């Protein structure tokens, strides 16, 4: 058996965002669901969409003699594995096969397909985050305007004067 290894290093920007996420996780409101980019990368590599693409391209059901896709997934992950190094944030994918070229091509293809899926997921989550933030800004502006109008109405109703403004006048 031959083993091929693929190492994935998150971008610097992703690392900075992960640092921000780890700070946010320490907030008292308890945001435990925030995953780091290496964890996301590992999840993408293990996803059915990436796994199925590798199975389809390399005809692993035929190669392993397995008729059902679910069993082919399990067989693939018996020959492949991922590991996340917490210190360096590096995700390592290893694939083994009796043919060294096949092992290397599978690991490389995992990287290609995983990169495409991760890019799509990252882009859509960024767009959703931007939309959320724009909505929050619009709501906050509306709240400030409403509070300002209520304060002005209160001052007019109760004939409250603004001493600094009156002295300037």
Structure overview:
Strand 2 and strand 3 (90-97) form a beta hairpin. Helices cover 67% and strands 12% of the residues. The chain has 169 residues and is an alpha+beta fold. It has a three-stranded antiparallel beta sheet with strand order 1-3-2. The chain has seven helices and three strands; from the N terminus they run E-H-H-H-H-H-E-E-H-H. Residues 27-34 have low confidence and may be disordered. It is rod-shaped.
What is this structure, in a nutshell?
The protein is an alpha+beta fold and 169 residues long. 67% of the residues lie in helices and 12% in strands.
Largest sheet: 3 strands, antiparallel
Q: How many H/I helices?
A: 7
The general outline is rod-shaped
Mean residue pLDDT: 84
């Amino acid at each position: 058996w031959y083993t091929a290894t693929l190492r994935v290093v998150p971008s610097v920007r992703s690392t900075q965002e992960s640092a921000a996420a780890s700070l946010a996780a320490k907030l008292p409101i308890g945001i435990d669901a925030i995953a780091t980019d290496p964890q996301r990368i590992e999840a993408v590599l293990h996803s059915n969409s990436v796994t199925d693409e590798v199975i389809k391209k390399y005809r692993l059901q035929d190669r392993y003699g397995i008729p059902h896709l679910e069993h082919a997934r399990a067989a693939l992950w018996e020959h492949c594995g991922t590991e996340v190094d917490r210190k360096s944030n590096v995700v390592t994918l290893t694939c083994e096969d009796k043919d060294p070229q096949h092992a290397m091509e599978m690991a490389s293809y995992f990287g290609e397909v995983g990169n495409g899926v991760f890019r799509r997921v990252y882009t859509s989550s960024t767009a959703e985050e931007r939309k959320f933030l724009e909505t929050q800004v619009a709501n906050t502006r509306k709240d400030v305007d409403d509070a300002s109008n209520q304060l002005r109405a209160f001052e007019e109703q109760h004939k409250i004067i603004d001493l600094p403004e009156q002295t300037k006048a």
